[in-house]
Design a protein that fits this description.
By secondary structure, the protein is mainly α. It folds into 3 domains: 68 residues, no CATH class; 119 residues, Alpha Horseshoe (Serine Threonine Protein Phosphatase 5, Tetratricopeptide repeat); 54 residues. The chain is built from 14 helices and no strands. α3 runs antiparallel to α4. The longest helix has 21 residues. The chain is flat. The termini are far apart. The relative contact order is 0.05.
Length: 245
Amino acid sequence: MIPLFGLSLIFSIALCVHVVRSGQAMYWLLIILMFQPLGGIVYLLAIVAPEFMGGTRAQQMKAAARQALDPQREYREASRDAEDAPTVTNLSRLAAAATSLGKHEEAERIYAQALQGHYADDPALMLARANSLIELGRAAEALPLLEALGEQGVKSRTPQTALALGRAQAALGRTEEADVSLRWAAAHLPGFEGMARYAVFLGQTGRKAEAREALAELDKRLSKTHPRFRKEAKGWREMAAAAAG
């Protein structure tokens, strides 16, 4: 036991030295020392290994590990940057970080602040604010934004816009219009959200058989999905399955 403990301690101390010398966040010291040797292994995989591996995938692994250990980090950093320089870029980043944490009211307020002057008709900001309004149950406010977005031209008529438009229309009881928008989004939107939300819409409007057909199509696509994306995909699949009954 003693030799193993000694090795673990040496391993942890070496990683702590790396933390300090490489300028990593100081919370890594606590993780390494308090959760020996697991904390050190996590640091090794999240920080040290990507430094040797290099490349985009390594950076993605590093970012994912940091997000898992400190989900508030991006929000804190974005808040600081937006306070120091409230540019549209920094405000957008902060709003996106707030959205990822479920802070939709804050995100909507920030997007509304960013939609000023030269950026008053910015498609990305308009869509993001509309989505925040939908999440807040304020579809009546989101719909004019989405309709105005659709009038900007073909480039603004994206599957993401159609999905948001369909959700707003459904929330306001405009069932036929919502069906058109959501069906188109399900057919053209990459990933599983469009298919899942259309299945939910079908289930909620009493079209259970069609909802089950949509679920079957989703399952077919899921079986061909790379394992790396299946966790997120299964979340959408569960949503669709609950609606299909």
